[in-house]
Write a structure and sequence with these properties.
This protein is α/β, with parallel strands linked by helices. The protein is built from 9 helices and 6 strands; from the N terminus they run βαβααβββαβααααα. It has a 6-stranded mixed β-sheet with strand order 1-4-3-5-2-6. The C terminus is likely disordered. Bound molecules: zinc ion.
């Protein structure tokens, strides 16, 4: 038997979900392609709701009791095997220390991931790396000579790495100002609490620079709110000197 989660999440739901998990075991985010099914097969059968069960049966047929953690497609992020546990996808289950597997839905032997599939894969990898401090790698790098995640994607690996790094660097990964929510106390409290927890997670994962960036940005973010609330600023220009990012 191979127990699966089965939920499908947007990237925002996924970020909020992983923030609740203990992922300290994770040191490597490992990228794969599904090869078969490719994106056409995936769509033809109705996507995740079909394939989560088909894949569960497939792996169970191989006698596996663990599997890859995530299947990422244009639909979003499909939660398969429990991310807090060691899964199975490389080296016959013998090279799994610290791995968290992302299966990107598609055949990337002759083409590259694109569109929402690419975006979801990049954002999911970045979210996991940000939370755990894990490095990014792929099946072929963990098990030398393997074709997964596809000849074309392997040949363009630095391109994919660059996209993930860009996602990690994006300013919406730091607290930032929006004029719309400055008057909404529950939202201010929720965001402040979330970012303080995020800072703590980063510090615990020894990502001290990231933790410091979050702290400084959070201070700027709160200063702006304080100033706006005290001065009753609503329609006037934004106080950009506190605007941070
Ligand atoms: Zn693979």
């Amino acid at each position: 038997m191979l127990p699966i989660d089965g939920r499908l999440m947007s990237i925002e739901q996924f970020r909020a979900h992983i923030a609740t998990l203990d992922l300290q075991r994770v040191t490597k985010v490992v990228i794969h392609h599904t090869y078969k099914p490719d994106e056409g097969d995936w769509t033809r059968h109705g996507g995740w709701s079909y394939w989560r069960k088909a894949l569960q049966r497939y792996y169970e047929g191989l006698g596996w009791t663990r599997g890859p953690h995530l299947f990422v497609s244009y639909e979003g992020i499909g939660l398969f095997y429990d991310m807090t546990k060691t899964g199975r996808a490389v080296g016959g289950g013998q090279l799994e220390t610290g791995t968290l597997h992302i299966e990107v839905v598609g055949d990337f032997m002759n083409r590259l991931p694109a569109g929402e599939t690419l975006n979801n894969a990049v954002q999911a990898a970045a979210a996991l790396m940000r939370q755990t401090g894990a490095s990014l790698t792929n099946h072929s790098s963990v098990v030398g000579g393997w074709e997964c995640p596809g000849t074309k994607l392997k040949a363009n690996w630095s391109w994919f790495q660059g996209l993930v790094q860009q996602a990690l660097d994006q300013s919406d990964y730091l607290p930032h100002i929006t004029e719309a929510d400055v008057w909404d106390a529950p939202i201010i409290l929720e965001k402040t609490r979330w970012w303080m927890e995020e800072e703590e997670r980063q510090r615990e994962a020894d990502n001290t620079q990231r933790a410091r960036d979050i702290r400084l940005s959070l201070i700027r973010w709160m200063l702006t709110r304080e100033k706006w609330l005290k001065e009753g600023v609503r329609e006037t220009a934004l106080p950009l000197e506190y605007g941070g990012e």
